[in-house]
Amino acid sequence: MRHSKPRVFVTRVIPDAGLTLLEKHTDADVWPHDRAPTREELVRGAKNADALVTLLTEKVDADVLAAAPRVRIVANVAVGFDNFDVAAATKAGVVMTNTPGVLDDTTADLAFALLLCTARRLAEGDRLMRTGAWDGWGIMQLLGHDVHHATLGIVGFGRIGRGVARRALGFDMTVLYADEFPASPEVERELHVTRVPLDELLARSDFVTLHTPLLPGTKHLINAQSLEKMKRTACLINTSRGPVIDEAALVQALRSGTIAGAGLDVYEHEPKMAPGLAELDNVVILPHIGSASYATRGKMAQMAASNVIAFFEGKTPPNALNPEALTRPT
Ligand code: GLV
């Protein structure tokens, strides 16, 4: 660690586990408001900083980096990093990091919760009770779809997708997955999963759950055509990134009965939702809380802080997305 402490602009109050570390090793300037800084506020905060600790709400691109010439490392408190322009950072000699691994189980829990909630219409039931509209038990009331023994299609079979498959074992589900890269035969055997092309997965699954990162190739992976390929009784679950679904097409599909329901934790233009989405009863909508447990958010904050500290100790940050930025010829 050099003699004067590096200045770190932290774009939101993060859990203590991370903040305490940063405050011990750096000169941390924490954005005090309970909202994301605007782009201007981000640039202002970043201007004299040596490092940034950001959330997924902060877009860090070539312009932000150009306006913050002292910044050498940007640590996202998130595993997804579609808010980063990593190529621009590499070019500028700035290393970027994320928080892989620590939130897999928490996010898989949420995906499964959303699946159950959507299948069994829990949010509708809750609304019925709260509004005082329940007039007693009814044999035809709030009929949903069984999760046990149903077919689950997992799109993107990384750490979180595999976590969902592990949970599905307890519900005796048939599990299909679609991924560019096949899992090893040992993993396929252990998790009782079968790799199939995406179109086959869409056609066969009762529940489709998305676990791909947002990349140019996964934007609108689920669109009007893919929704048409799903069963009319199927539900779509998304805890990955909103733009993986064409949200306007999803509203249309939910309205017209092309699919039965959807459970969403993420949206194409957060915090906005596509017009009409919130008026539909066959959708469960959550405010991007996939990793939101006390323990996991603490681990994420600690991991981001550790990446920054490692960097200023002259080490390669353990979760560097572009370690080549460190060796870039100047
Ligand atoms: C949350 O969405 C994350 O990417 O960590």
Shape: globular
What's the total count of β strands?
12
SS content category: alpha/beta
Q: What's the CATH superfamily of the largest domain, by name?
A: NAD(P)-binding Rossmann-like Domain
- The parts where pLDDT drops under 50 for at least 5 residues are none
| Overall CATH architecture of the largest domain | 3-Layer(aba) Sandwich
Distance between the termini: 22 Å
Q: Main β-sheet: number of strands, strand sense, barrel status?
A: 7 strands, parallel
What proportion strand?
Answer: 5-15%
Kindly state the percentage of residues in helix.
Answer: 25-40%
**Helix-strand sequence:** EHEHEHEHEHHEHEHEHEHEHEEHH
Total number of domains = 2
Q: Write out the strand line-up for the largest beta sheet, numbering strands in chain order.
A: 8-7-6-9-10-11-12
Using the coordinates above, name the CATH class of the largest domain.
Alpha Beta
User: Mean of the pLDDT scores?
Assistant: 97
Bound molecules: glyoxylic acid
Give Rg in angstroms.
22 Å
Number of helices: 13
- By CATH, the topology of the largest domain is Rossmann fold
